[in-house]
Specification:
Largest sheet: 6 strands, mixed
Strand content: 5-15%
Oligomer: single chain
Strand order of the largest sheet: 2-1-5-6-10-9
Order of helices and strands: EHEEEEHHEHEHEEEHHHHHHHHH
Length: 360
């Protein structure tokens, strides 16, 4: 399944009088990374409905109440024990550097197994970085696509051969089980969950408040073991900025290369070194992302969305959205449409149809 697919979405009820928000329980394990422990609280805690009510309730538990040692020079105090996991709608397992037999042999300790036994069937499970070892050791990732920090991916795959490890993505979404790569990729995954649950408007508001990019696609490369470009080597940043202002136009490799004063061959190589994908793949991804915004935030007809995004026709739009998201544009809009169009929603000039010479 594509990392950004909204399929098998777990419904999250809108808060209302007498109904509690979706409960997220974060499991704090010995040796945890404080930064990753704080991610769910920061991201989910900022998500509000139009009336300003919280959409999530975020609580933390440990294997026992009390102090939990971190990988820093301080401990945290956790008030709740593992029984809290039984009340969760979503359980998040952040990374830990002291997983013991879980990391060494892929085996749960008796204490951790007893804690996870509290989780109810159907609960959504999320891991950040090496937290995926816990989900894998418990069998939750068997037969599923998952990721972890690239530095641990090979070890992870050897330890858990039943898991389909993808070390080249920021996060994976398999409906009720989601995993992320290391550190900041956990932020991307949390924002993706907010977006999946409540749409782009809410997720973008959370991102603005947190001062992070609103969306990095889960399939984006982790930039594994790629050398930092030499200072004298130009990047492809200007070309990418130029593209984002012209997604509705036909875009040719020669036009992009010209923005950086490079040959097409050099530009293509440099672009792949910096992004991990080809210029055509990147442009298609940006067009799909733009289509998502228009489908969620406007009532534009499909033909107009297609022109605005450079896909040209509704048929081409449908093909690319289906390939990237696993659903049709109509189904995506029905699931994620915001309650009202965003202020200043763009209107479409007559754009060109897809061109055989365009970059796709």
């Amino acid at each position: 399944m594509d990392a950004t697919q909204p399929q098998k979405t777990q419904e999250t009820p809108e808060p209302s009088e007498g109904r509690r928000p979706h409960r997220v329980v974060v499991l704090a394990l010995t040796g945890l990374l404080p930064f990753e422990l704080g991610m769910p609280h920061r991201i989910f805690g900022r998500a509000k409905d139009p009336a300003g009510r919280p959409l999530y309730e975020i609580l933390t538990c440990g294997l026992a109440p009390g102090a939990v040692r971190t990988d820093a020079d301080f401990a945290i105090h956790v008030e709740h024990g593992p029984e809290l996991l039984g009340t969760a709608d979503t359980v998040v397992v952040p990374a830990s550097h002291e997983l013991g037999p879980v990391h060494e042999r892929g085996a749960l300790t008796d204490e951790l197994a007893a804690a996870l036994a509290h989780i109810r069937p159907g609960t959504r499970l999320v891991s950040i970085c090496t937290g995926g070892y816990v989900l894998a050791a418990a069998g939750y990732l068997d037969g599923r696509r998952a990721t972890t920090h690239w530095a641990y991916a090979e070890h992870f795959q050897r330890l858990f051969p039943a898991v389909r490890v993808d070390a080249n993505v920021l996060y994976t979404d398999d409906g009720d089980v989601l995993t992320s790569a290391g550190v900041a990729a956990g932020i991307d995954l949390c924002l993706h969950i907010v977006r999946r649950d409540h749409g782009a408007a809410v997720a973008n508001d959370v991102a603005r408040r947190t001062v992070v990019p609103p969306h990095r696609d889960g399939g984006q490369a982790q930039f594994i073991a790629r050398p930092v470009p030499k200072p004298q080597v130009a990047s492809t940043t200007a070309a990418r900025a130029w593209v984002l202002d012209r997604l509705h136009e036909p875009l040719r490799l020669s036009d992009l290369a010209r923005q950086e004063a490079m040959s097409v061959r050099t530009f293509t190589r440099r672009f792949r070194e910096e992004s991990g994908i080809s210029p055509g793949e990147w442009i298609t991804g940006q067009r799909v992302e733009r289509a998502r915004q228009l489908l969620e935030q406007t009532d534009l007809p499909m033909e107009q969305v297609a022109r605005e995004t450079g896909f040209g026709t509704a048929q081409s739009l449908r093909k690319h959205v289906q390939a990237a998201l696993g659903v049709s544009p109509t189904a995506y809009r029905r699931t994620f449409k915001a309650t009202a169009p965003a202020p200043g929603s763009p209107t479409s000039p007559d754009g060109p149809s897809d061109d055989a010479g365009s970059v796709h």
